[in-house]
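In this supplementary section we document a worked example of the pipeline. Step one takes a protein sequence of length 398 as its only input; no multiple sequence alignment statistics are reported here. Step two produces a three-dimensional model, which step three serialises into structure tokens for compact storage. The input and output of this example are shown verbatim.
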Amino acid sequence: MPVRTIQSFLKLQSASGILLMIAAAAALVCANVPGVARWYQLLLDVPIEVRLGALELNKNFLLIVNDGLMAIFFLLVGLEIKREILDGELSDRRQMTLPVVAAIGGVAIPALIFLWFTQDDPVGRAGWAIPAATDIAFSLGILSMLGKRVPIALKVFLTAVAVVDDLGAIGIIALFYTSKLSLLAFSLGTIGMVVLAILNRRRVTHLGVYLLVGAIIWVCVLKSGVHATIAGVSLGFAIPLRATDADGHSPLRRLEHLLHPYVAFMILPLFAFVNSGVSFRGIGADVLFGPVSLGIAGGLLIGKTLGVFGFSALAIVTRIASLPKGTSWGSLFGVSILTGVGFTMSLFIGMLAFEGAAPEYAAATRFGVFGGSIVAGLIGFKVLSITLPKDPADSVSA
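The serialised model returned by step three reads:
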């Protein structure tokens, strides 16, 4: 991937991370200020209905964001993962090894720490995957505060780990967070995915055709009981990367470029706003500092650090991989701590894990995600500020 392309992507993600922080803070204020909290809840409950003949979609505003707009986010995730695998940092086996190994550790160790905390809570154990994800926008936003001291290879490593994390999270959602399955709807969705594969195989480059089939798949998957985000990812994987349209453009790169601003500056901040507003009225310390919140915070802060850095160190020491160019063990440790900034994907998985559970679980989830992410961000920033070269000329800058 050209350096200029990487720089543009990182700048966009960094700006999005700042906006996400503002949206999350605004939601917490709205949910806890008397008077405002009522209007905030009314917004979330606004009914939205779409009817086409016998087909009916009836959701409130919160679910439209989580099931609908977030499918667009996952479409973008699918596009990014495909591009990284075919033409990006994950296309070179030598460069791919370290972030893949690091991401495996960053999923497994946080999950084990969470399960240790919640071993006596059968409902709470359902959230084992919450601390397994890294929020690319937030983590890169923090990393960008160190400016040109950060080697481009370190930013690329963090991005690649987050991309592999996303791929793992998608698999987890599909396998472990699926409600009752409608075989008819799921079969129709699967047929739609086969159609996408045929279109790709025949090198069809018209985006409208893919988006129409993708919309049909989204409805089928939504009705099947499998979370609709899988439809977005499947569509992203099907969009051609190397074929070119009549204008000589790659359909995947064109759609990715088109979606980035809307996802970064509208969909993700809106998701943060509607999902971060938890009221702490009536919630005691036993919930806020209970096994679920401590498991999430511990998984993000300790688990991600141990998993990402420990597995990376093992890969480097055994010469399976090497340190990213221009980095040191200290800066690798610092960026490993930053992977504990979970936020968006952690909140999303928490929403699925505790759907229908007591409200206390939602409060504990948000408290654990916010607490763990904030502490991981602060410590990671401090470690990097100490370990990175003071003179940007001493590193391969971005």
